[in-house]
Amino acid sequence: MSAAPSTIIEPFAIAHATLVTGDAESTTLDDMTVIIGANGRIEQVSPSLSTPIPSDYHMLDATGKTVMPGLINAHAHLFSGGKPINPKLATPTGQRRVAAFAHSPLGRPYIAAKARSSVMAQLCSGVTTLRTLGDVGYEAVALRDRIDAGELVGPRLLASGPLLAIPEGHGAPLIALVCPDEDAARANTLENISHGANAIKIAATGGVTDAQELGEAGSPQMTVEQMRAICDAAHESGVIVAAHAQSTEGVRRALLAGVDTIEHGAVLNDDLIELFLNNPNALRGWSALIPTLSAALPLLDVDQSVSGITDIQLENSRIVVAGMLEGARQAREAGLRVGVGTDAAMTFVTQYGTWRELDLLVKRGGFTAAEALHAATAVNAEILGVEDVTGSISTGRAADLLVVNGNPLEDLRVLEHPNLVVAAGHPIWRPDAKIKRIADLDEILDQTYAS
Ligand SMILES: [Zn+2]
Fold it and tell me: In this protein, which residues make up the domain named Amidohydrolase-related (predicted)?
């Protein structure tokens, strides 16, 4: 298939912008010009005064606007837009019905279309690199391949395919391959990688969404040996492994197995902090934490009559949410690598709300705005192993940029309405107008997190 005309890049320059570098020190440079080449990379970034723009390059005057690195969302699912999940579907029977539909000849195109619209919403909201962690099938892998082939403009995708869980464990049957033992764990990892997955996800513990009993949400599900088999198989292909872990013991087991990113997290202790910093079984000798406050906090902070979650989900939330928040604070203070992921598709987590995760890290997690921006750009790039390609605005890196009105260091909310998104040199014009927002959901979140 030949490349669609939309994927040809015309070189251009963004001139006279305020540049927020995305470091943790709030570095801001006034009147800067970024030159973007036809190869989709940054050719030059320097003061406008000393930066002549080649005559065959388009020039965008960004006076009064801020340019910053595109956001990286390290944890998303694509199968839903974030509306509260019908409690009836949270039952085992309901989940089996949804899974049967999703995997049927009728359901597969629906899931593929949903995935595409979710990825586009992420892109238009400023996310230029996205990791999926639990897909129905290989719909995210297929999208990534189309984007990489130049058939579609989209974010850089790290796609997991289905996650790996124990039989009837977290994520099964909708978005998981089940692993009764070590051999199955290894085989399913290789299955995902042979389908092109470049991320692997484990359900190390139960989860809030599908737990049927009190305490199930964080209770360990997969053994260290099973997770070790998964990590070994993935690491042999250079693929990092993420684990859903919502209890201290679940985090410990996943780290011991060699998991590279702990998703959600729990209260940490000194041994665990040391294991994050020096993890001999992780691909790069360390592990990172990706708290997902956007998915956790609203379950407690929004009234149950509005959220529609079940009593069991609410009680399990009470157990895991406090732990997640404490773990995020501890990780920040201990200097661990803390990344940004939203868990998009979960109840109240839209595909366009990455800015809300940054906002919650500041309002509830003790982060400064600069630290939150840093986590969502350079730190996330390092965690995902793409730091040579993206995560900062520098010569030779991909032109993954977000242009906003105003300064996000002063008000993160300016990220909600991007002025321009650039994905590997492809400008997305009027991105804000292309986002289909869920107004009532946004209103609930706005009211709940007004301060
Ligand atoms: Zn998730």
Answer: 66-422
